[in-house]
Amino acid sequence: MRHLLNWALSAVAVWLVARLVPGFHVSGPVAALIAALVIGFVNATLGVFLKIVTFPLTLLTLGIFWLIINAAMLELASAIVPGFRVDNFSAAFWGAIVLSLVNMFFRWLVGTGTARP
User: Fold this and answer.
1) Residues paired with 85 in a beta bridge
2) In 3D, which of 92, 109, 113 has the Cα closest to residue 14?
């Protein structure tokens, strides 16, 4: 049940980011749900691999390079999901920042970010 709530919150966050960031587009609620699922899958697989491989560069840039990786993962997800589109890398970069902040806020608001017994 908790995973479904996280998925729904992520979809709402994707929809909200599409309203806030120019160049970030979602055609509807189904596209937002699929985009949230694909973004999570891409970040959990390829994103983790890239973050491990580029860890020295991330240390050198004090973590800023992870924002670039997150933007690239959003661009990849937009290439896969119909109805979800990111116009350029700048939109993906700002979208990644806003998306992570909105997701963090939603998880804090609902309390799904904390481990419960």
Assistant:
1) 25
2) 92
21: left (phi over 0), alpha (psi -120 to 50) or beta: beta
3-class DSSP state of 59: helix
Parse the chain into domains and list their residue ranges.
20-110
**Residue whose entry in the numeric block shows the structure tokens 């020295």:** 56
- Residues 39-73 have pLDDT tens digits of 999 988 998 898 899 899 989 999 889 999 999 99
Q: Cβ-count burial of 67 within 10 angstroms (0-12 exposed, 13-18 middle, 19+ buried)?
A: middle
Cβ contacts of 108 within 8 Å, gap of 6 or more? none
Q: How far apart are CA 39 and CA 69, in angstroms?
A: 12
Percent of the chain with pLDDT strictly greater than 90: 62
The Cα 85–Cα 107 span in angstroms is 25
